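Quick entry between incubations.
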Amino acid sequence: MLNVDKIRADFPLFTHHPDLIYLDNAATSQKPKVVIKALTDFYERSNANVHRGIYALSEMASAAYEAARSKVAKFIGATSASEIIFTKGTTDGLNLVAQSYGLANLQAGDEVLVADFEHHSNFLPWQKVCQLTGAKLKFFGSDASGFISKEEWQKKLNQKTKIVAIAHASNVLGTITDIKKIAKLVHAVGAVLVVDAAQAAPHLAVDVKDLDCDFYTFSGHKMLAPMGIGVLYAKEKILEVMSPYQLGGGMIESVSEQEVIFAVSPEKFEAGTPHVAGAIALAAAIDYLQEVGLAKIRAHEIALSERLLSGLAKNKRVKLLGEAQASERTGLVSFHVDGVHAHDLSDYLAKNNLALRAGFHCSEPLHQSRSCGATLRASYYLYNTEAEIDTLLEKLEEAINYYE
Amino acid sequence: MNELYRSELMEIYKDPAHRGHLQPCSVSLDKQNPFCGDRLHLALQIKDGVISDAKFEGELCFVSIIGAEFLLEEVIGKSLAEAKKIDQAQILALLDLNLTTSRIACATLALQALQQALVKYEEASK
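Done. Structure below.
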């Protein structure tokens, strides 16, 4: 069991907003004091650019930055720290893979496969590279729970498939995809598997070697770290031959007027001054999550999902978007109410200090394929309580009656 | 809780006088709210340069419905020149809803539809 009272005390935002019920964690999480302190400590005590100076302060900053990289590598089970590229976030990571790996490896006649529940950030970059290369972008249809059937895999995946890009967990349906299982299918046709882990990394214990995916990317800010820092993991043998995405300082071995020899990974993919303080604060967030315990956080989220799902099931007018069981989803539930607009419900809930997301959650094709307008999404994390879920259910009932 | 909206607005929302199908009409237009995907259908009947009747349709939120109701109440009976002068500030003042920035697009959805419909009508009449 989590000691939620103790955890909440670690988050200064809740001190400043004591009445807030924050249920928009799939958009971004709040930050514990230790993470905020890691940021300010870096700027107050260690600030210098990395990989540049030979003076002590720069070496200290570089060492802390590289220690953060090693911590991330260990956290997700990467073979080596050189497989960890720091990015701005998941979107940045997916664009890097699409623009670098995608552009170099796709040609007319090839196919790229994504699921119908992808966030815009995991299909717009592919739509773009398909337009540029003449490759074809195809979508897996998922069932009401957000699972892709064996038949659908057989129908869509073939020898022309070069890239499969899929969310480890859907930001709308919440459903967790079995990455280990699909990696085998994808590799069997000689394609690579790109995983958007924005909604998974904050909630699940991950071992990328065990999953055997080729690329795995996520954001720090959804897992207690600052905005603007993210991670792209890729297998070393892929990074070795992959071209850099952006060019500039900090990523070369030697440069002349007409030629350049790039540094090896990860520097090759980190042109310009990186978000050093963000990486160090991400390491602090990982320490915090591990101290609380990922397994305990997961059990807590499942309990909250069960409570919310059973409460919503009591109201016949509430329709779920994504019917996965509590244990099959990360900490989120999307729903809509017959005859009442999601934004009106959201307004009413907001007046009662409940912060939820209403809209398409950057997954417009999914809402179109399910013939569904805007939805409400409740997403929770380690600091949310059962009492908060009960308040949501109570106020939602009130809101529905209000617009009746 | 304190009432979210004035009670008279709640009555308008539950039974909007100008919601419905207008047939025949002089001009009609669909306008989508990019924020939530809501689609408002607006139809105008124009006689001798005056808007004689107007109706809206669509699955819409409270704020869009109130925005459409107040706008159509205002615009029916007005000349095309007068109708063109109605702006966002005027509608927001009429609604007096203390809206957050994200809901202004809802409140003015019907107004945007009206402005585009008037342009469409004039171009078709040329």
